[in-house]
Amino acid sequence: MQFLAATNNLKKQEELLRILAPLGIRVLTAQQAGITLEDVKETGTTFLENALLKARAGCARCGLPCVADDSGLAVDVLDGAPGVYSARYAGEHGNDAKNNAKLLKELQDVPKEQRQAHFACAVYIVFPKDDVFPESDFSPDGRTLFAEGRCEGRIAEVPQGTGGFGYDPLFIPAATETPDASPTMAELDAARKDAISHRGAALRQLAELLRKTIN
Question: Does residue 70 have an active-site annotation?
């Protein structure tokens, strides 16, 4: 089965490929599908709403089942900001360096014990109208599946690591922090990141729904 990944973010594409490949799903980029993906206006107020907007647009554009995610960072002391505005927190969409710099500035006087945060991810799959699954508990209209994931942690005082993307160099997952080490998401290898990340959690849930729905 072939799916389109409704993203131009190469790092996200890599994660989708790694996690969905064991299901026998080949995740195509827009280039591989022979199309151009236009940026979708993310007008939703939640990650789920934005993921659905992107998945619907990608499916309509290429006629393939389309998988899309929307994800971001929520910082407790900032009342959940940057939230759905994570990618454009500093005003320029996708500028990781500026977004990270703004976040550090907002938290410059916040002590370690008050820097709790979490990553959240919502993933949607939209199927074409001619590829409809029967109605089920997972997909009431036979055309969509979705899942959500979350990763708890805190914000570091300075960036650490060169891997990943977005806020990864500032996010210390609670699952990997020990009294002797506080690695950020950007310091983890791909397998470890997939095992604990918000996107990994959402995609594993989605994979299970796919197994049940396809079967």
Answer: yes
Catalytic residue among 69, 70, 96, 168: 70
Q: Which residue has the tokens 């989605």?
A: 206
Query: Which residue reads 């079967």 in tokens?
Result: 215
Identify whether the C-beta of residue 3 lies closer than 8 Å to the C-beta of residue 27.
yes
What CA–CA distance (Å, rounded) separates 81 from 61? 32
Tens of pLDDT, residue by residue over 2-56, are 899 998 777 778 878 887 888 788 888 888 888 888 888 889 999 999 999 999 9
The secondary structure element, H or E, covering residue 121 is strand 116-126
Condensed to tens digits (0 to 9), the pLDDT of residues 58-100 reads 988 888 889 999 999 999 999 999 999 999 999 988 899 999 9
What are the boundaries of each domain within the chain?
2-214
| Residue 39 and residue 61 in contact, taking contact as beta carbons nearer than 8 Å | no
Strands of 144-155's sheet, edge to edge?
26-28, 2-5, 66-75, 116-126, 144-155, 171-173
Q: Global pTM?
A: 0.87
Q: Which CATH class is domain 2-214?
A: alpha beta
**141's torsion region: left (phi>0), alpha (psi -120 to 50) or beta?**
alpha
